[in-house]
């Protein structure tokens, strides 16, 4: 049995689901342990993966209280109690694979003799810093300052990252950061990225938004927050509205209502509300319609220590969809897209740079088509989950040997 432990919901966490299902498909019996919420099955099989949900109903209120308590002690008492009881009655195997920084100390304390794998989805302390850019109430700002200080979590990370026997990073940049900052040997860190399957297809069901042939659409799909850099897109639409081109922006997704209101106000202040379309969340089967119709699918993330060390699934989904890409120069984007001419790259936060790339995409369609093909070839031949799944399987089989030697 191979055991994964995750704080978030399963199977909604795409990375955890792909890893677990791939291991199960390869013949490695896999279970995922997470928290239980009312309405969910306590135990079920999902695509060959055994899912076990522990504890009492993990309500929003309970989560808020537990997050604060866990941040004070860097220890999740609730998960510890429920997982300890579960482990007495159930076989977990020789390896425990924990996802992300917050649970690693708890799991190591509970299983001091098991082989521990830490899967780092992102730069957690820097992610906390990025989240603070979102407008919040005074109470939440005080709560963040007291309990979710990036500096506190950075100090914790320095100690906690020494606890696992092996670390999985999401991009090469994260591996390099861990080696550089914490003096951890290269052999102790593997990179398993957020690639997509070779047979991935965006379902292309039409929606009620009508695309006009004469308009060049900038399409953004994903979470909406300050780190996403959507301001540069809005400001660029404003600049381009004075030119001979009709450029409009589509924003699909959800986020902090106050922040979304600030983006709408920004568009209104620039007198381009009719050119920036906030469409809210859309079901997955509708997303392909917007990706394929876009003049440019944009990922305009601001560049910081968080975005320089992670990578979103949607990048590879867009590449698999043979659709045009415009991304900021965060390190992983620049390496994957810029260095391969697999799309268009602008300087993060720089409206002039963004506008220049949009103009280039409008005026040079053959170049756009050439880069779309390069992008597709790249994911088909080199950066796809089919190959990454084999890499993950081989890694786990090697770690099992290491775990056997330790035990």
Features:
407 residues; alpha/beta; Rossmann fold; 2 domains; eight-stranded mixed sheet; 16 helices; 14 strands
What's the count of strands?
Answer: 14
> Helical stretch count?
16
Strands of the widest sheet, in order across it, are 3-4-2-1-5-6-7-8
What is the share of helical residues?
40-55%
N-to-C terminal Cα separation, in Å? 16 Å
CATH class of the largest domain: Alpha Beta
Corresponding CATH superfamily of the largest domain: Glycogen Phosphorylase B
Biggest pleated-sheet summary:
8 strands, mixed
Oligomer: single chain
Determine the CATH topology of the largest domain.
Answer: Rossmann fold
pLDDT average, as an integer? 92
Beta-strand portion reads 15-25%
The unreliable regions are: none
User: Can you tell me the overall shape?
Assistant: globular
Helix and strand run: EHEEEHHEHEHHHEHEEHEHEHEHEHEHHH
The structural class is alpha/beta
Query: From the 3D coordinates, which CATH architecture of the largest domain would you assign?
Result: 3-Layer(aba) Sandwich
Question: In total, how many domains does the architecture comprise?
Answer: 2
Q: Which value, in Å, is the CA radius of gyration?
A: 22 Å
């Amino acid at each position: 049995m191979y055991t994964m432990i995750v704080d978030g919901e399963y199977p909604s966490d795409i990375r955890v689901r792909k890893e677990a299902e791939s291991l199960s498909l390869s013949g490695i019996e896999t279970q995922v342990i997470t928290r239980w919420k009312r309405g969910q099955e306590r135990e079920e099989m999902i695509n060959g993966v055994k899912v076990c949900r522990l504890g009492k109903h993990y309500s929003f209120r309970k989560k808020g209280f537990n997050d604060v308590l866990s941040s004070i002690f860097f220890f999740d008492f609730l998960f510890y109690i429920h997982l300890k009881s579960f482990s007495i009655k159930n076989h977990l195997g020789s390896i425990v694979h924990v996802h992300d920084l917050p649970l690693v100390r708890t799991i190591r304390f509970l299983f001091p003799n098991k082989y521990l794998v830490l899967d780092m989805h992102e730069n957690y302390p820097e992610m906390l810093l990025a989240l603070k850019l979102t407008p919040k109430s005074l109470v939440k700002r005080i709560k963040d300052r007291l309990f979710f200080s990036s500096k506190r979590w950075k100090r914790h990370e320095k100690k906690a990252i020494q606890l696992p026997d092996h670390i999985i990073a999401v991009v090469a940049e994260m591996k390099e950061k861990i080696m550089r900052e914490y003096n951890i040997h290269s052999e102790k860190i593997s990179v398993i990225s957020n690639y997509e399957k070779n047979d991935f297809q965006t379902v292309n069901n039409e929606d009620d938004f009508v695309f006009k042939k004469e308009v060049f659409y900038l399409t953004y799909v994903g979470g909406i927050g300050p780190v996403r850099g959507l301001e540069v897109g809005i400001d660029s639409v404003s600049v381009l509205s004075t030119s001979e081109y009709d450029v409009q922006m589509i924003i699909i997704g959800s986020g902090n209502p106050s922040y979304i209101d600030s983006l709408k106000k920004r568009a209104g202040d620039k007198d381009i509300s009719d050119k920036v379309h906030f469409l809210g969340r859309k079901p997955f089967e509708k997303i392909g319609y917007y990706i394929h119709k876009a003049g440019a699918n944009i990922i305009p993330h601001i560049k910081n220590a968080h975005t320089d060390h992670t990578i979103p699934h949607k990048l590879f989904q867009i590449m698999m969809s043979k659709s045009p890409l415009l991304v900021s120069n965060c390190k992983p984007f620049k390496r994957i897209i810029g260095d391969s001419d697999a799309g268009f790259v602008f300087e993060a936060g720089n409206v002039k740079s963004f506008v220049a790339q949009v103009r280039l995409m409008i005026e040079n369609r053959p170049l756009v088509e050439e880069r779309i093909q390069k992008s597709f070839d790249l994911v088909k031949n080199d950066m796809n989950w089919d190959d990454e799944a084999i890499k993950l399987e081989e890694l786990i089989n090697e770690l099992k040997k290491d775990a056997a030697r330790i035990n």
